[in-house]
Amino acid sequence: MLDQQDAVTGGGQGAHGDEVPRGPVHEHAPYVPYNPGKPPQEAADEFLEVMRRRRSIRSFSDRPVSEQLIQTLVSTAATAPSGANKQPWRFVAISNPEIKRQIRMAAEEEERAFYERRATPQWLADLAPLGTDASKPFLEVAPWLIVVFKLLKSVPGSAMEHAGVYYVNESVGIATGMLITAIHQAGLVTLTHTPSPMGFLGRILHRPEYERPFLLLPVGYPADDATVPVIARKPLNQVLNFEL
After folding, report:
1. Residue 164 class from Cβ within 10 Å (0-12 exposed, 13-18 middle, 19+ buried)?
2. Structure confidence at residue 3 (pLDDT)
3. pTM here?
C-alpha cells in the first residue's frame, strides 16, 4: 500500500542477519484540509472540464518556457505519495539543444526498429489512426524535455542506501500523472514518449545505474497549426463500477 508509515523505530535484521538501520518516527502535525471555496461537486465539475481539454500534442512551438516554471511543475509532481515515502524519482530537465539533438537521434533509431521489426501487426494497426511514425522532431523543437527516472536505491551513498524502495513503478507513475496534470494546468502541453528500450537516456544524461528511465515528456506551447486526432474516451460505465 502506498500509504505505508513513513518510518519505524528501532533496528531490524536484514536477510543475512545484519542490522538494518531504521529511521525515527516522524512528528505529527494537525492536517489542514484544502478548501476550494465552493461545494465539492462544483469544484470537481470545474476541474473535470479543465482536464477534458488535455490532449497529447506532437507539434510544438519553440516559444520559450522559463526554468522557474519547470521548477514549479516538477515541485508539484514531487508532492506525490510514494511507498514508505521513499520518493523514488528523479526528474532531469533538458533545454540544451545539443543534448536534445542526441536524444532525438537515439530515440528515432529505436523508433525505426520498433516500426520496422518489433511492433506486431495489430500494434501498428492500432497506431495507424493516430498518424504516428518514427520521426520525432518535437524532441528538438519543444523548449524542454523532462526525463523521468525511477530510483532503484533508497538515498544512495547514505546509511539508508540498502533500506530498499517500494512500489517504485506505482509511485513514479503517480508522480508522472501529477506532472502531466500540472503541465496542462499551466497552459502548456506535453506528450508521453516511451521509446523502447530507453537505456540511451541514462547514457546521454550520465545518470547512475540505479536510475532507470521511466518516461520522456517534451514540454512547451503547442504550435499555431497543431492538430489532434478526433478520438473518444470510454464512457463512464465502461471504466467505473459501483458496489453499493
Report:
1. middle
2. 55
3. 0.88
